[in-house]
Design goal:
Layout (H helix, E strand, L loop, with lengths): L11 E7 L5 H14 L2 E8 L6 E3 L5 E3 L4 H16 L9 E5 L2 H12 L3 E5 L7 H9 L3 E4 L6 E7 L8 H13 L2 E7 L4 E3 L5 E3 L8 H13 L6 E6 L4 H12 L1 E8 L4 H6 L3 H8 L3 E6 L14
Parallel strand pairs: 1-2, 1-6, 2-5, 6-7, 8-9, 8-13, 9-12, 13-14
Antiparallel strand pairs: 3-4, 7-14, 10-11
Helix pairs in contact: 3-4, 7-9
Length: about 300
């Protein structure tokens, strides 16, 4: 795929859909974000490889063997977009690709270098959003309806990195959306934290109360940001329970969580907090790459 569409002066948001899916809620969320963050909106529709010889009609039914399938699907996709966005989008901002969803989104992200990628919650359990985050090092928003939510952003933090990358990005998003921010940290009941911040089993020597240590680190976290940050310290056996409870109590519109690159064996044996939040939450979830390899771990203004 050509990368000539890149332009350092234009910041972009990419919404990716797959198959006959027409996720109007996700498109509405993407449009709102694009307008608020002043990003150029791009739409990518990914079809299974076997649809390379077919056309999707208005009802989503496949007509195999039709010539010009790509143009037909692009026109149908543009018509759907125009139904949500009255002005529609220029032709070069609506693309159709065939192949594996994650691979095609990664290829389009390479060409566009978007600030954020938006996907719908269809197939939330298949791990596509996390795979896209890991491959592209770009934040991915799993979109759900914002209608019944307050202007509150909940950020999940494990306090392990002194620069607080997830909270920092969440703070930038909250500021740009005009929302308040709640940072949630969970301490497992069976863990304690040493004065150096290393997690040990309860039976380990020279430890201090984990809740007290975490509370002091949360106090330091608040001092890192100009904008007010409300902090919540919880003690649950499952961190995702604590984050979801905080989001429910505050009726937040968005949960921000980090995701690291993991080995295939680690992902097979244990689902991380980000995966559980995507699968269980009824709210929008923004998954941010965390780690030295994160392409966009720079200043908050780059959100």
């Amino acid at each position: 795929m050509s990368t000539q569409r890149q332009c350092p002066l234009v910041r972009r948001l990419l919404i990716a859909t797959r198959g006959p899916e027409r996720p109007t809620v996700a498109l509405e969320v993407a449009l709102r974000l694009a307008r608020t963050l002043r990003l150029q909106l791009h739409v990518l529709r990914v079809l299974p490889g076997r649809v390379g010889l077919s056309v999707l009609d208005a009802s989503g039914a496949e007509s195999f063997g039709a010539p010009g399938w790509a143009d037909s699907v692009r026109k149908e996709t543009s018509a759907w977009v125009s139904g949500v966005i009255s002005t529609g989008l220029p032709e070069d901002q609506v693309q159709v690709r065939t192949g594996r969803f994650e691979d095609m989104v990664a290829a389009e992200a390479t060409a566009l270098a978007p600030d954020i990628i938006v996907v719908s919650d269809a197939g939330r359990a298949d791990g596509a959003a996390l795979q896209i985050v890991r491959v592209t090092d770009t934040p991915v928003l799993v979109a759900r309806s914002l209608n019944a939510c307050r202007e509150i952003v909940v950020a999940a933090t494990n306090l392990k990195r002194p620069e607080y990358p997830v909270v920092r990005r969440a703070c930038a998003v909250a500021e740009q959306l005009g929302s308040s921010l709640i940072a949630v940290h969970n301490v497992h009941p069976r863990e304690t934290i040493s004065a150096s911040g290393i997690v040990w089993p309860v039976s380990a020597p020279v430890v201090i109360d984990s809740a007290d240590a975490a509370a002091r680190r949360l106090d330091r976290l608040r001092g890192q940001f100009d904008a007010p940050v409300q902090t919540v310290l919880s003690q649950e056996s499952d961190a995702s329970d604590a984050i979801l409870r905080a989001a429910d109590l505050s009726n937040a519109q968005l949960i921000v969580v980090g995701a690291r690159r993991r080995s295939w064996l680690h992902r097979l044996l244990r689902r991380g907090v980000a995966h559980q939040l995507i699968e269980r939450s009824q709210r929008c979830v923004l998954v941010c790459p965390v780690g030295d390899e994160a392409r966009r771990a720079g200043p908050p203004a780059e959100v």
